[in-house]
Design a protein that fits this description.
5-stranded antiparallel β-sheet, 3-stranded antiparallel β-sheet, Luciferase, domain 3, alpha+beta
């Protein structure tokens, strides 16, 4: 039996799926473990309603107390005794925890937040798109715009992919620029190296 769990070094195991939960996709990463408390909060630190997205804070029996020799990092890691996981999440109607993405990976387009995973899912919904990576590129005025690198087989016009995205995303989520590449760099484990994708895109642009 393989059990899906969610956790981190600083807090231990936070949530897990139980055998009785089944395998439905809407169960997220499971329910909080015994003794684990979670909060999903907005930018002000106020708890959001169930089903709404926000920053995930946790308290666990295995939670760490501090980063050795890094007092500033320790202060930033906690909010009134709750550990800031850095993840954006929501809680489903049955109490299951759903991860939406990493807070620091969100793209700020004119004050509106864009989850790169949502844009990647929209790109991958096109039958020609095999792989896609999305990130925020800094603009000349200090803001950000959505940029993507895509592997497409067979190749397709950029205008077709843009129209495809516009039919599925809000205007500020649509990639401002798409790079079509033959392949994306991967680690020895087969995971896409996102930083390398961004570096390669910057080199092509220079």
């Amino acid at each position: 039996y393989i059990q899906q769990v969610y956790g981190c070094t600083e807090a231990g195991v936070i949530a897990a799926r139980r055998p009785e939960d089944g395998s439905a996709a809407d169960l997220g990463v499971g329910r909080p473990m015994p003794g684990v408390r979670i909060r999903v909060v907005d930018e002000r630190g106020d708890e959001v309603a169930r089903g709404e997205e926000g920053a995930l804070l946790v308290r666990t029996p295995a939670m760490f107390t501090h980063y050795l020799g890094h007092a500033d990092a320790t202060r930033e890691a906690f909010a009134d005794g709750w550990y800031r996981t850095g993840d954006v999440a929501r809680v489903g109607p049955e109490g299951h925890l759903h991860l939406v993405g990493r807070k620091d990976s969100f793209i700020n387009v004119g004050g509106k937040k864009v989850n790169p995973l949502e844009v990647e899912q929209a790109l991958l919904a096109h039958p020609s798109v095999v792989e896609a990576v999305v990130w925020g590129e800094t603009t000349d005025d200090g803001g950000e715009r959505v940029r993507a690198s895509v592997v497409a087989r067979p190749p397709l016009p950029a205008t077709e992919l843009t129209s495809h995205c516009r039919a599925r995303l809000l205007p500020h989520q649509v990639p401002a620029e798409v790079d079509f590449v033959a392949s994306l760099p991967k680690s020895s484990m087969g995971k896409i190296r996102r930083a390398a994708v961004r570096t390669a895109a910057a080199v092509r642009r220079s």
